[in-house]
Every structure is written in structure tokens, then in C-alpha cells.
Amino acid sequence: MINLDDVTKIYKRGAAPALNHCSLNIGVGEFVFLVGSSGSGKSTLLSLVLREERATSGQIHVLGQDVTRLSRWKVPRLRRQIGTVFQDFKLLENKSVYDNVAIAPQVIGRPRHAIQTEVPQTLEMVGLAGKEKRMPHELSGGEMQRVAIARAMVNRPKLLLADEPTGNLDPTTSWGIMTLLEQINRTGTTVVMATHDHQIVDQMRKRVIELVDGRVERDQERGAYGMAR
Ligand SMILES: Nc1ncnc2c1ncn2[C@@H]1O[C@H](COP(=O)(O)OP(=O)(O)OP(=O)(O)O)[C@@H](O)[C@H]1O
């Protein structure tokens, strides 16, 4: 699903590498936490997977494609197969819940009748049935993140990348979001989540990849946030 082979990313000549000879392999259906202190390279790794940034050296395969060589016109097709969720939700403030989700199938040209069934189905899956007409400012933080997850999932991507999805939420609300991500993973979507949330990582006991200064310091099945020494 995701394979990095000796990947280095240097943003500016002379700067320390954001990723430094990084190799890892994430298989279909896995749930992986990406942890590490601020600046360790988590977001950089996610942006390389999405081909928002390009590696300085090394090879990256995502969904069977060599994204280090992928021509520019093929990048949108790659991104269509990847759902993304962020800490700040990135909702369109002047659009309803329904329209925020519908935008994803609209941009890839899904037929209208398909959108009319897929959007309500997805909103139900994330627990927002009945809130289609609400505007983002009429939602709680947890509900806003559910809209973002619905938008990420409505086109049924095989891979979901989440960059600190619980970063703006209180612990109880965060657990609701984690339950949802786990459910999405159980239905076959590979989930990679960058997080600083110790409690969540410690309780969920999923695979943990820890970055330190852009290097893979630890890659552990059923890991905790900090290394047990
Ligand atoms: N667009 C950019 N241009 C230059 N340097 C960058 C850029 N993005 C990230 N960096 C640098 O790369 C390094 C890794 O940053 P990155 O954002 O990947 O870390 P992170 O682990 O996601 O941090 P955080 O937990 O704070 O989000 C940092 O030193 C950062 O300053």
C-alpha cells in the first residue's frame, strides 16, 4: 500500500533533512500511528505519499504506483484514491454539511443520482444523519471532524491519511472519532494517522512508527506512544 525505500527529503539546500534515509512498508488494511515530536517529519511523510512534495532521493510506492516518477498529470488520479483528514477540518464555511461532502464526488464527475445516494449513506456511516442541512458553524468540533471524514470517505478511498485528526478535540470527542476511524479500518481501508495523542496511541495498541529527526526510530506492532525501555 505504502512503501518507502531509503527516502530523504531536504526542503532547502543546507537545511537538516526533514526525512533522513527513511524506509518503511505499510500493507493493505493496516492501521498505523505515526508518532514523534514536533518537526520529526510526520507531515512531510504524509505529503510525500500524496505527492504534494517530492522526495530528494529514494523511492516511494503508493497504491502500486511509483510516486517519485509519476508524471504530473497522473497525480490527481493518485490523490482520488486517498482520503485526507486534518486537525483543522478544512470545511467550506458557506456550504452545508451535505454540500461539504458532495463536493468530493462532484469534482471527480460522479453522476448526480450516485451522489444523491452516496452522500446520505456516508453521512449515516459517520453518525450525521439528519444534520445534512446544518452549516459548519452550527456543528461541534467532533461533528465538524465527522463531516471531514465523510468527505474523505465518500469516494471509497483505499487509503485514509489523517494528520492529527483529534488535535482540536477534547478527549471524549476524540474517542468518538477514533471509534469511527477504527470502524473505517475494519471495513478494509488502510489508515495512517499522525498524532501527538499519547492516550489514544497507548489505549488502541496499533502499529506505531516513531520518527526522530526524520528517521524511523521505532516500528512496533501493538505499540505505545513512548518506547517501553
Ligand atoms: N514546506 C517546508 N519548507 C521548509 N521546511 C519545512 C517545510 N515543511 C516542513 N519543514 C521542516 O521539515 C521538518 C519536519 O517537519 P514536519 O512538518 O514534517 O514535522 P512534523 O513531525 O509533522 O511536526 P508537527 O508534529 O509539529 O506537525 C521541520 O524541521 C520543518 O521545519
Write the layout of secondary structure elements.
Blueprint: E1 2-9, E2 19-26, E3 31-35, H1 42-49, E4 57-62, E5 65-66, H2 75-80, E6 82-86, H3 97-107, H4 112-125, H5 141-153, E7 159-163, H6 171-186, E8 190-194, H7 198-204, E9 207-212, E10 215-220
Parallel strand pairs: 3-8, 3-9, 6-7, 7-8
Antiparallel strand pairs: 1-2, 1-4, 4-5, 9-10
Helix pairs in contact: 3-4, 3-5, 4-5, 5-6
Bound molecules: adenosine-5'-triphosphate (ATP).
Cofactors, ions and other ligands in the entry? adenosine-5'-triphosphate
Largest sheet: 6 strands, mixed
Query: Which regions have little confidence, pLDDT < 50, spanning 5+ residues?
Result: none
List how many beta strands DSSP finds: 10
Roughly what fraction of the amino acids lie in strands?
15-25%
Number of helices: 7
In whole angstroms, the N-to-C terminal distance is 31 Å
Shape by Cα distribution: globular
- Approximately how much helix is present in the residues? 25-40%
Question: What is the helix/strand order?
Answer: EEEHEEHEHHHEHEHEE
Main sheet strand line-up: 6-7-8-3-9-10
Please provide a brief summary of the model.
Part of the ABC transporter FtsEX involved in cellular division. Has ATPase activity. The chain is α/β, with parallel strands linked by helices and 229 residues long. Helix content is 33%, strand content 24%.
